Amino acid sequence: MNGMTSTNRMSLGTSIALAALVIGLFGWLRADIGDLRRDVRADIGTLRSEVQTDMGDLRQSITRLDGRIGSLEDRMASVENRMVSVENRMGSVENRIARVEGLVEGLRPALAASGPAL
């Protein structure tokens, strides 16, 4: 028998079986890693498209807000102009009141001299 004992043959058979098992496991792991990579790439693609969609929505919202802010700034400028106009009118009215008060003060001595009030 070729100089191999039955123990050597069993050990050789076990080694071959173990090597085949290890090779099979590595093949399975390699295939599984490939599947995982494909899944990750698909998930990344999905996330990219979702982020792009969200960014587009965000840009539209920002554009709308910019328009609203611009409109509010215009309205505030209009209100400020009205306030300046009101302040000018108030100054004019205060000047008129002061003139009327001066006239009334000037009339008091004349009225007092003319006689008692009814």
Would you summarize the structure shown here?
The protein is mainly α and 118 residues long.
From the structure above, extract its key features.
mainly alpha; 1 helix; 118 residues
In terms of topology, how is this protein built?
Elements: H1 6-114
Rg (CA only): 49 Å
Quaternary structure annotation = single chain
- What's the count of strands? 0
Biggest sheet features: none
List low-confidence stretches: none
SSE order: H
Give the DSSP E fraction (strand runs of 2 or more residues). Answer: under 5%
**Total helical segments:** 1
Q: Considering DSSP H and I runs of 4 or more, what fraction of the residues is helical?
A: over 70%
- State the separation between the terminal residues, measured CA to CA: 156 Å
Give the overall average pLDDT. 89
Q: Which class do the helix and strand fractions yield?
A: mainly alpha
Shape: rod-shaped
Can you describe what's shown?
This protein is mostly helical and 118 residues long. The protein is 92% helix and 0% strand. The longest helix is centred in the middle third of the chain and has 109 residues.
